Amino acid sequence: MDGAPINVGELIANNIVDFATGNKKVLPHFRLICWLCEEAKCDLFANDLDAPMMKPLTDRYMDGILKDYMERLQQIGAEEEAGGQPQPQPQ
Description:
The protein is an all-alpha fold and 91 residues long. Helices cover 51% and strands 0% of the residues. It has one domain. The protein is globular and about 45 Å long. The two termini are 22 Å apart.
């Protein structure tokens, strides 16, 4: 990851938007979201779901996440410079 900052909240939010708009077939970071809720002692509801981690968080996996994140930031920056609104990126 080379010490580059990552806005985890933005990353998760963007992935949820991709899932909700049909660009992703699986809700990414589902276990991370569950863990963050557990750590924050959020109220649980009867219909809340929990899931095991689907992939281990290896350096290679995190490098892929960073690459996707940086590409998304570049795309958003280019669209903002062009005066347009950022569009969801197809996966």
